[in-house]
Amino acid sequence: MARTIELKGEPKLGPMFAKAVVTGSKRKGRTLPDLEVVRRDVTPSVADVADYDAVCGFALSNRVPSTYLHVLVFPLQVALMSDPGFPFPLMGSVHLENTIRQHRPVLLGETLELRARVENLRPHFRGAQADLVGEAYVDGELVWEDRSTYLFRGAKVDGEVPPKVDEPEAIDGFGATWRLAGDLGRRYAKVSGDVNPIHMNPLAAKALGFPTTIVHGMWSKARMLGALENRLPDAYEVNVAFKKPVLIPSTVRFIAQSAGGPGSFVLALRNAKKGTEHARGTIRPL
């Protein structure tokens, strides 16, 4: 039977991450819960959006960046993954890909209803993967959708493991160079609430196999989108697949090429020195 959890206030991610660490070893299920997490009457703060814009490279305007809506729905997704019925540990999960569909711009001052659920559990050659789905409504109108695919390493689920497919090389060429300071993880955590320690604490990052702290994947996506915001249509879909983590501090190169029509682009984020691919993506009008 389907369950609904309604959050009455702004959830705190710190305690939820702590709970996920404590309960992670007990999570050994193989099926997803039929659960939806809801939060109503959410009005983005002008000051909070401005702080987010400054960290992610968006211009100040009366439009809420589509990636900021992910910031608002992310705590609902963490609440879902912290629920006792969720089968996999949150800590150590890997954000593989994110797709956002903006049906129209959300304006500052509008009041949102946010919803989150999980679906599409399937095998992965490194474990299991599932999609965390977020939605935002204004007066019953679906204005925004978000789908984040997570890998849960080592998990076993029913189904045939798909073969590993060799992808073609991402685009390359001239682009914008961005120098990322060592405190970027802490700065993005402050404006997003995502306090996963691998982005802020080198020791925590090393404990999970990284040489030092790594950039939030959704910062990379937001920064790429911010660089193109004055060329985007009102309604669009943006997909980004996260590849090699971005270590901080570092220097990266952002490449965007037209995909043939107005508002259509192919994107890549690479290490400025070695050319390592960190992320690739596409934008298309709806």
TrEMBL record:
Gene3D superfamilies: Hotdog Thioesterase (3.10.129.10). Residues 186-260 form the MaoC-like domain. InterPro entries: HotDog_dom_sf, MaoC-like_dom. It comes from the Bacteria. Pfam families: MaoC_dehydratas. Belongs to the enoyl-CoA hydratase/isomerase family. This is MaoC-like domain-containing protein. It comes from Dermacoccus nishinomiyaensis. The lineage of its organism: Bacteria, Bacillati, Actinomycetota, Actinomycetes, Micrococcales.
